[in-house]
Target: Methionine import ATP-binding protein MetN 2
Amino acid sequence: MNAGGETDAYVLEAHGVGKSFTTFERQPGFLGVLKNFVARKSVVVDALSGIDLTVRRGETVGLIGANGAGKTTLVKILTGIVPATTGAARLFGRDSFHLRNQEKARLALVMGQKSQLWWDLPPIDSFKLLKEIYSIETVDFDRRVAEYTKMLDVEDRLKIQLRQLSLGQRMKMEIIGAFLHDPDVVFLDEPTIGLDLVSREVIRQFLVRLAEERGVTFMLTSHDLEDIEETCKRIVVLDGGRMAFDGDLAALSAQVMGKRAIEVHVDPHTPIDESALSRDIAAFGAVVAGRSVAAVTVVVDAARLPELVPALFQLLQVRDLSVERQPLELLVREIYRRSDREGSSIAGSRPEGASV
Ligand SMILES: Nc1ncnc2c1ncn2[C@@H]1O[C@H](COP(=O)(O)OP(=O)(O)OP(=O)(O)O)[C@@H](O)[C@H]1O
Model:
């Protein structure tokens, strides 16, 4: 254990973390403005409750959840931007809300929607400012700028004003800026939002390499499950401010491997009786995992496909049918469904396996 209280075991900890925000309802119109003065109505939002999470050095954690699930709030609490209402959050063994400069220097935060670099400066000038702020040795600075800009394919953009760069180039510069001081823990909140496929891929490869070569611990939030699948070993799912799942991604993916998603396109004018269909396909161990007006997605063990597919032709007015590996997204949807039904978290067994 060092001076900050960090144990070798965990770099990040949340113990029973909860966060409530109090907001005030605003009445519309002129009368409403007057009413707001006289009697403001307060509303309490429980953004997070009872979050327990411990992350070891070198772990790569994907944090997912629907809009408003509490992901950004959790990241803000862990990094000490806002205090928790209940429970304790710790970074490097120290209370996150009372970090000292020495802990802050080991941390980096990349917010996809916010720029940490200076908008009017070319990235190289922002990087030089960061060099001074973090006292980065010149030799390390020069090597990292050269290496990281090459890895992210933005070597020729260093001297162009940040505001003149494309969204993808800007994000890559933000990421380089975050990694320049060689942080131990990096939080990335939606780093690939709005980026094209090639840029996403380049950023994912960069993160994987940094985690492998430098042992960086990172926590990544993204609505793009491929980001998480390609870069993280562990997955944490938040649902309505509660922990819905925490487990090993490989074990979760292994479950996906043995499953198939059958997308059945039907005549849109012949409505599907979903409860009857669910009942009929249950005999094959299959479930309805999604539907639209003219299609229904059914998930089943790969081994039962030969029995189920002919049965589907009997049960539905099939126009077309395709079979694919079950996307992770469907499994995550199932986690949400179970979390809603059971009203409590579904623990994955880490690191050996995960259960949903
Ligand atoms: N400063 C704030 N004041 C009041 N309510 C807030 C504040 N910040 C967040 N909330 C509320 O807390 C809940 C969780 O918000 P949060 O931003 O953490 O969700 P999220 O999972 O990051 O969502 P998204 O994917 O949309 O970014 C939401 O209901 C949100 O409205």
Remarks:
- Residues 21, 23, 45, 47, 65, 67-73 surround adenosine-5'-triphosphate (CB under 6 Å).
- Confidence is low (pLDDT under 50) at residues 1-5, 349-356.
- Residues 259-325 form a domain with the Alpha-Beta Plaits fold (CATH 3.30.70.1150).
- The first strand starts at residue 10 and ends at 25.
